[in-house]
Amino acid sequence: MRVIKNCHLVCENKIVSDSALVIQGQRIADIIPIENITSLPDTFEVIDAKGGYVTPGFIDIHSDYIENLTAPRPTSLMDIKLGIREAERILSSQGITTMFHSLSIYNEDILEYKPIRRPENVSRLIDEINQTRNEQRLIRHRLHARFEVESVTQVSSLLNYLKKDSIHLLSFMDHTPGQGQYRDIQGYVDTIKGYQKLSTDEVHVKIKEKQATAHITQEDMKELINKAHEKGVGIASHDDDQIDKVDFNHQLGMQICEFPITLEVAKHAYQKGMYTAVGAPNVLLGGSHSGNLSALEAIQEGCASILCSDYYPASLLYSVFKLHRVEGYPLPQVMKLITINPAKAVNMDDEIGSIEVGKKADLNIIQFNEDYPVITECIVDGKIISQYHYRMEGVQ
Which GO biological-process labels does this protein carry (predicted)? Predict the structure, then answer.
């Protein structure tokens, strides 16, 4: 058994500073007054948090970081098992204890520069990541299938993944130029030209091809959604840019609105009872890298439920403390954006997402090195899986 002392427990609605946290096996066994530590048996392992915060482990429901680790260059496909091991090491050091690896399911990648997104490689990733669930791993691995609605030939594969319980979150994407993320055609042109050596005329030919591509039918979408509901899988829309699109997706049974394009859309989705997910890198950058909704503005307006790391895992930790220390939000309030709220959105809140007796002991101890928050201990299932020690005076 373990006890964490000398800490500030960041609970769901308050910070508790006069108590210690007891871990027995994989779970939080008790929260006791600090003076009661002396009465605990000598067999307890004592973890001194040194005045730091103890938070729930972070839950990231949208990140394609695994693609960078398994394919660091367009022509370099590394060993997938090695990529997963590296992901665990890196993500745990950043406080992420549950990762929904976001894998794109396309007929072809819209930007055509990531071979890791080819169907055969996505299938390999799905198989390997699911295999880790039968092994002893450092963090919780889950899969987020990002399904492009023009991927008509991939419907049967996705249904099969759902039937085999290989998918744990499903989102529907539409990257057709002229709407959604690429409603600004010039922005699409600039993006394509940034990745491919094409002339402007050639890009406009590609735009017309994309706009003419058939999408899956509403019946196919309903079948996928029904199967996801049957399996308890969360369902998200993606890059909604119109209120009627939110209404349509909500009526179909989608519970999460990922990266709404405008504040009006974000507010509407939130009012409909959907979890609205915005990007943590957006918070750090001070705005969207693609000129869309500012995550900070959505938080200020009270219509953001979840922060996702998207492409930069370290952003979860840093964005929350920017919101707390720079923007002045109470720490328990903004910590929910990366803990209990995503847990609820993906139906895992009965086990993880908050510091409560009986829940899994997925925890982080956070101290500060100068102005930067540092994960000094990351705990999953009651086990310390990552530790970081530093000296304030610097390297000697």
Answer: organic phosphonate catabolic process
> Strands 2-10, 19-24: parallel, antiparallel or unpaired by DSSP?
antiparallel
SS3 349: coil
Q: Which of 109, 96, 119, 38 is nearest to 385 (CA)?
A: 96
Return d(Cα 361, Cα 182) in angstroms, integer: 41
Distance CA 17, CA 51 (A): 9
How far is 41 from 45, CA to CA, in rounded Å?
10
CB 273 within 8 A of CB 305: no
Tokens 């903004």 locate to 334
Phi-psi region of 391 (alpha: psi -120 to 50; beta: other; left: phi over 0): beta
The SS3 of residue 228 is helix
List CB contacts of 267: < 8 A, sequence separation 6 or more: 301, 303
Q: Helix, strand, or coil here: 257?
A: strand
Strand ranges for 25-95 from DSSP E = 27-33, 45-56, 58-63
Q: How far apart are CA 31 and CA 14, in angstroms?
A: 14
DSSP conformational letter for 132: H
pLDDT, tens digit, 9 for 90 and up, residues 346-390? 999 999 999 999 999 999 999 998 789 999 999 999 999 999 875
Phi, psi of 304 (to 5 degrees): -120, 130
CA dist 166 and 84 (Å) reads 16
One-letter amino acid of 307 = L
Q: Provide DSSP, 213-254.
A: S----HHHHHHHHHHHHHTT-EEEEES--SHHHHHHHHHHT-
**Phi, psi dihedrals of residue 345, rounded to the nearest 5°:** -65, -30
Cβ atoms within 10 Å of 55's Cβ, excluding its own: 27
